[in-house]
Amino acid sequence: MADEFILETEGLTKEFAGFFAVRDVALKVRRGSIHALIGPNGAGKTTCFNLLTKFLKPSAGKILYKGQDITSMAPADVARLGLVRSFQISAVFPHMTALENVRVALQRQHGSSFDFWRSKSVLNQFNDRARELLNDVGLSEFANTPAVEMAYGRKRALEIATTLALDPEMMLLDEPMAGMGHEDIDKIAALIKRISAKYTILMVEHNLSVVANLSDIITVLTRGQVLAQGHYSELTKDERVKEAYLGAGHA
Amino acid sequence: MKKSIASLLLGTALAVTTAGAAFAQDKTVKIGALSDQSGLYADLGGPGSTLAAQMAVEDSGLAAKGWKIDIISGDHQNKPDIGTAIARQWFDVDKVDIIVDVPNSGVALAVNNVVKEKNGVYINSGAATSDLTNAQCSPNTVHWTYDTYMLAHTTGQALVKAGGDTWFFLTADYAFGAALERDTTAVITANGGKVVGGVKHPLNTPDFSSFLLQAQASKAKIIGLANAGGDTTNTIKQAAEFGIVKGGQKLAALLLFLTDVKAIGLETAQGLNFTETFYWDMNDQTRAFSKRFSEKMKNGAMPTMVQAGVYAGVRHYLKALDALGGNPHDGVKVVDKMKSMPTEDELFGKGEIQPNGRTIHNAYLFEVKKPSESKGPWDFYKLVGTVSGDQAFTPLSESKCALLKK
Amino acid sequence: MPETAMAEAPAKAATGGNILQVRNLEAWYGESHILHGINFEVNAGEVVTLLGRNGAGKTTTLKSIMGIIGKRAGSIKFNNQDIIRATSDKIARMGIAFCPEERGIFSSLDVRENLLLPPVVRPGGLPLEQIFDLFPNLKERLNSQGTKLSGGEQQMLAIARILRTGASFLMLDEPTEGLAPVIIQQIGHTIARLKKEGFTILLVEQNFRFASTVADRYYVVEHGKIIDGFSNAELAANMDKLHTYLGV
Amino acid sequence: MQALYAQLLVGLINGSFYALLSLGLAVIFGMLNIINFAHGALYMMGAFVAYFLLNLGGISYWWALLFAPIIVGIFGMILERTMLKFLTGLDHLYGLLLTFGIALIVQGVFQNFFGSSGLPYAIPDQLKGGMNLGFMFLPIYRGWVVIFSLVVCLATWFLIEKTRLGAYLRAATENPTLVRAFGINVPRMITLTYGLGVGLAALAGVLSAPINQVRPLMGADLIIVVFAVVVIGGMGSIMGSIITGFALGVIEGLTKYFYPEASNTVVFVLMVLVLLVKPTGLTGRAA
Amino acid sequence: MTALTDDTLPVTPRAMRDEMIVFVVMALLLVAVPFSGIYPFFVMQALCFALLACAFNLLIGYGGLLSFGHAMFMGTAGYCSAHALKVWALPPELGILVGIVAAFGLSLITGFISIRRQGIYFSMITLALSQLLYFIYLQAPFTHGEDGIQGIPQGHMFGVLDLSKPTVLYYVVLVGFLAGFLLIYRIINSPFGEVLKSIRENEPRAISLGYRTDQYKFLAFVLSGTLAGFAGALKVFVAQNASLTDVHWTMSGEVVLMTLVGGLGTIFGPVVGAFAIIAMQQYLAGFGQWVTVIQGSIFVICVLTFRRGVVGEVAHYFRRSL
After folding, report:
1. What distance lies between CA A147 and its chain's CA centroid?
2. pLDDT-based confidence at B265, cuts 50/70/90?
3. Quick check: B174 and E241 CB within 8 A?
4. Is C184 in contact with A248 (Cβ distance < 8 A)?
5. Which residues does chain C have within 8 Å of residue D168's beta carbon, measured at their own beta carbons?
6. Residue C239: what pLDDT?
7. Can you give the pTM of this predicted structure?
8. Is residue B118 part of a domain?
């Protein structure tokens, strides 16, 4: 059912020189949901994420996006289909202003990106939309600030605004709250909640509690394999999950 | 080197002060020695050429007749761009009247155009290209010493006549090599010899073993080297290594200078045949000149034929100025005067300048001595034969120079 | 044994038992300021665990002690010698050994070469037989390529190779990460045994259930600072607090 | 057919130089992440040092084989300590630019003092003459070059792949920070590695001195061919660069026989073809 | 890892105004040259190299790609223009066009081959390609090998401008340079330039935004190569010859040097660098090979202490983008 699930994987596997970072993962992301992929350090979350966004080539398995096999597609082309990722370390264009950061994303769909003979003032047509997006993520006053000078949490927000500018159908967020304090986490969580009204979101997170209230469904990964899947309330009762998180040792 | 810098700077300064005076007095001449001062051709031209020009000025005795003659030197670094830029600047800013030497055919031809445009005088001694007096001849240009046509006709002819009737060519794969091979081949066939094969090698090949193996396999009596500079010296060294000369084949270097032989060493170079138009140890006059020359060179080197050509050319130029009595700034006029006078000097003997600018003088076929025969650090050659100028250089009937059609 | 949060009470630390004393440690990665004044100490023979969220600064603390971070400030005293300005090779030769989170097994080296790579810096290291006794798997796989090992074996190799150098102070960064429970158990036994052998161990762990089996004391790191500290005995009492800190 | 054997052998001789030079480049690249543009200039220095040793110190070829690489290696280590060291953490391209500058300086200085035409260096008496192999007359010296450089290449391979020192080297190539944290003085190792790579270049220079003239520009054009060799082979492995070096020498030798006009270009053409088919080179890891 | 151009500054709104002011000053100075007594041939030569360096800078400074074979475009255009002018006797404007088209074609081919690798590999490949081309030109009959193409007629541009008159030639070259410079400025400040900048800043992110970054780098390569060809075609009129020097790799090295001295990724840096290096070559010509040593030393000094280049340092000091 391509309609119900926007992203599906079958037997997704990644092997690094004999070591299986991701093994036989079958994932189904429901359209319009916030789906969290969690697991302890080294569980293969980021590898899995890189496979989905094509920055790594799977050793085996298939990835279907909207029913289309994207397993061997180039990363840029996947993005063009509306499946857009973020990065763990905030991915902005440091020496460009916030507005320009967002504009670069808006510019792509417009099709003028190879126009080397026109002034970049043609890009001013995107300014309103860019400001709107910056406003959405609470950065309206930073439009003319170079990204490199912005605080960490704001960079993250800028990254999300840039991603939203592509008007994707699905967003893949890689630990959007990594390295943030409590205050920032709440803000970003609220932001994610808000944008989820329009987009499907798959996020990778390390901490269960962060995604507790945010996500509709959670897949727990350990040692490259799916351990459990379900809503937060179900998972907290699952002994295997507890063990994976809190560790073995105590009988 | 220091001297040339100083004279360059000084020359620039002087130009400002003397330019005005030049018109009044009209006996002021400035000579620009444009050469490769530190590269591939620095040893055969370079500072030695500047020295030769200076000696020519001193020997001319014109200073006593009220002439004021300055020499500046420049380094074209074997780049036509730099060569033309210097030449232009010399004419425009430094008010140079004559440019001498200019080894490296590419630079020589480029400078040729500038001199013509500026109506200066151009006495080339260092360049091999016979185009200077053929397709690209100019009323402002005199080409002294040697050219590709001469090299092909002397060495080739002499060796075929001496029984070397089968040839294999090792040819540098560009215009210069092709011209040398073509001209030499014509001479060989005309004299009843035969070219049994050849191989074109790229310029600046460090390793000739493949090509030498092919030359060896051809069993030709003579292996003709239609290349120059490092390529020639490398071929000769490696031929010795592969036992080619010991195997009975003879090498004919179509273009080789005294300094090359020095670099190769007699042990390896012995028995080589080639042509030059000047050798220091020809007669008392050449020995006297060369002794004076070498005493002034920082490494005590004997003059090469290129440097000798610069000397002879400048001497002849100054003679023409003397005959004109003044007003040295109209290049065509001066060159016409030079052409109208027979050339004669201690180094090249008697000769003439043809209407196309080609200087005609004798050429000599030499063989490199065995180490045991050599009596001094520069005692390298023994004379094998002499070819008279009219036989050695392009006959006017064959010249493609437009000046001849007048 | 100090049992209160060390951040507030540095003066209380007894210098005699301290093998490591960290004061006001600050560290930067490029332009980002990661550690904002870390204070803690480790006594000889102890196993001390740093707890905290991802990105709190635990690993950076270890790396700062090891001298492999770009810019540091403050003081780190090891055996009463300040090592804040020493290069990492000098620090290693003083007897500190580090086992990184990503394990750092060299793929172009076989297991034997990996094992023998760290040079012996002082006498007193474990002899090879004893190491093979601890990790029997390694002995069988001596000739395979380092990265051909399973995750657990790689972790064992990473620990094993720093045991023979003679270093008495070990820093282990998340040794249980991504490993199967049975392996984690084995690593727990190993650490316990190393403690018995007299090694002092500074551990970074997310898995505090595992940590609780081996640690004597804990520090909690957040935002590049030590915000809490307690002994193993106080662990149960601090459980709720810990859940908030770690967000589990 | 006989001529073909001869050409194969002759190709191997050139391959020896490619192999020694690309090997040195690979060793340096592994540790310093620098493409050493000065490699050709240091190769030339090796030949010049041999020349000076012989003409000023009366030190024979055999000792020059030992001393020239050491002297040039020390020069290289000084370069590393005084300049290259400061490029750590900067874009690789700065290393390329810096070593390019060094190459210009070294070549320029030698050109100023020794002109461009070259100085002779005699083949040592013990290796003079040649032997008739039936299909060709092989100068003994050339045979020596092939055998000696093969031995040096294999010894280098052994040093790096099979010894404890080599293990340090390989480990530091992968993760210098960690190796240093184990107590190994990595900066010193980097300096020594640069010295080793440079020494290999100088050794090639000594080997080539009796074959070619000792010229200031002898390495300038060669280094570009070696770059092409490196692009073809990739910087993946020590063995890879040795094999690629020898193989390309042979291919070039064959081209000289079958189509000499292309012998200067064949390596570059091959490079283009390899890039079109396999952009990462034959054994290479990604840049 | 610090990228080559990390030291460049963010573009502030006032930057455009600054750049405009500097441009006008530069243009006025250049227009005044024939009245100043400065030797115009020197300036013309410098202008050609400045354009070449600007074109090169488009690739390295804004695309992050260090081409070590950029002379091949200049040389190729030079040969083709020279051939067109001399053998086909085309008028100057068409001769220039032939050169540009040739450089364009060459950059399509070499770009397709070299863009597949990045970093130092890209540099080595471009270097090797230019060396390949050097040997081809050495052997090809139409280039006349070592002799080069000589005595190229300058002719009348558009039938009216007599290029053999130095002043006319000077202004034609100046107009060509300014046109090329403005085009490069426009490219940098175009929608395309914006994407290029984003790729330089953070390529994985640009990919994740859906940009096929290789295509943008390829276009930058082709633009840079074609403009370098334009510089080469102009130079034919100044030097009146086309020779192997222009395709030799040492020339490529000089272009890198000019840009590095002036400032990578700065707009005016390559111009300053080109004038500085050409002036040095001109006035230190008497020093022979020491010029090489000096050039090498400048490389070393720039890389070790002066990575922003002259203009970059000035811009950094005043916190402006130039």
Report:
1. 20
2. confident
3. no
4. yes
5. 117
6. 83
7. 0.86
8. yes
